[in-house]
Amino acid sequence: MNLNQLRYFTSLAETKSFKTSAEKCCVTQPTLSNGIAHLEEELGGKLFRRTTRSVDLTPFGTFVVPMAQSILDAKDELIKSAQSFFHPELKVLRIGMSPLIAHTQFPNVIKTIKDQAKWTEVFLKHCFMDDMATRLQNETVDLILIPRQSGTPFANSIPLYKEPLFYIPPQTDLGAQQTTNPIEITSLDATPVILTNGCGLSDVINDCFTQAGATLMPYPGQALNYNVVVDWAELGLAGGILPKSQIHSNVTTACPLMIQGKPAMIQYQACWNPEHPHHPYLKETAQLIAEILTNVVTYNAIAKPAS
Predict the structure, then answer these.
(1) Domain membership of residue 284 as a residue range
(2) pLDDT of amino acid 293
(3) Residue 175 and residue 149 in one domain
(4) Alpha-carbon span 13 to 11, nearest angstrom
(5) pLDDT-wise least confident of 59-73, 176-190, 206-220, 253-267
(6) Mean pLDDT in the chain?
(7) Do both 154 and 276 map to the same domain?
(8) How many domains does the structure of the chain reveal?
(9) Strand intervals (E) in 25-173
(10) What pLDDT was estimated at residue 239?
(11) Residue 304 pLDDT
(12) In the predicted model, is pLDDT for residue 204 greater than 60?
């Protein structure tokens, strides 16, 4: 595996065109195709579905994209961090994010942070929840944006925004009339629920069941991504629980999840290390992100369905 192969992969994932990606990467189409084939062989699975008319990511490809992009971003981050080491006036901000936080909310965040001129460069990276605290302690990330969980409290944090959770029932009877009425979480007691790994959603769901005094029964298999949760529910394997932002508008069976008559919510937060040398800047930046994301999420909830 090399950086060029990852560059070809992420480019094709974005453009869905071998011709366009080859031009963008300044290589021939056979070179790009061979590079992706070698990457697929090394990773052990197909990244794309190819037909004569289209190129689409497989579920495995969708799963790999953020990790491949994070490796490419790490190269740029290394260069900028090295520059800031020798030139302390250059401040690099590295934001670690749970994949639950949708990237579509971030154009205004990055633009505004850069306009504030407190940070020379800003890098976003998807990170697994398991090592978020270690990354903060080791200063490989400066600020993390994560779902709030009972098991992972952070002393220095501020709330960002909330969004509702929805239940996607298993489609076991295709002829039955579908309903999207709110559903109490206690009615799912000991009902199999499809979970994901690493993003923090499983812990949030467990907290909701605990709060309601219900028992969470995880489905034996774990989904690679949120689209797979929906796919498995549509296959009738088990139900799934996702935040509104992760449910595509063409999903028509999602029901608002309730806890004692109130919407079950997921709360996101920004956290940082109080011993970080740029601690005051990080707190100001976290407050700025909270203000922007609250406005963006409110606008999206009013103006358009989740996509």
Answers:
(1) 65-160+268-303
(2) 80
(3) no
(4) 5
(5) 176-190
(6) 85
(7) yes
(8) 3
(9) 48-50, 55-57, 92-97, 121-126, 143-147, 157-168
(10) 94
(11) 41
(12) yes
The CA-CA-CA angle for residues 19, 24, 29, to 5°, reads 35
Q: Do 48 and 116 fall into the same domain?
A: no
Phi, psi (rounded to 5 degrees) for 223: -75, 145
- Residue 144 in contact with residue 210, Cβ under 8 Å? no
Token code pair at residue 69: 């992009």
End position of a domain, from candidates 12, 27, 58? 58
Co-location of 280 and 150 in the same domain? yes
Q: State the DSSP string of 215-265.
A: --EEEEEEESSHHHHHHHHHTTS-EEEEEGGGS-TT----EEEEETTEE-E
207 and 232 assigned to the same domain: yes
Which residues contact residue 46 at a Cβ distance below 8 angstroms, ignoring those fewer than 6 apart? 40, 58, 60, 61
Q: How confident is the model over 102-120, as pLDDT tens digits?
A: 756 677 788 888 887 778 8
Q: Which of 14, 42, 58 is the last residue of a domain?
A: 58
Phi and psi, residue 100, nearest 5°: -65, -25
For 122, the 3-state DSSP assignment is strand
What's the alpha-carbon Rg for the chain, to the nearest Å? 21
Exposed/middle/buried for residue 96 (C-beta within 10 Å: 0-12, 13-18, 19+): buried
Q: How confident is the model at residue 101 (pLDDT cuts 50, 70, 90)?
A: confident
Do 85 and 147 fall within a single domain?
yes
Instruction: Examine the domain organization and report whether 120 and 181 are in the same domain.
Output: no
Identify the CATH number of the domain in which residue 10 sits: 1.10.10.10
Q: What is the CATH number of the domain that holds 180?
A: 3.40.190.10
Residues 123 and 245 in one domain: no
Contacts of 158 (CB under 8 A, 6+ apart): 269, 270, 283, 286, 287, 290
Tell me: the pLDDT tens digits for 81-95? 777 677 676 678 889
Res 305: pLDDT? 42
pLDDT(11) > 70: yes
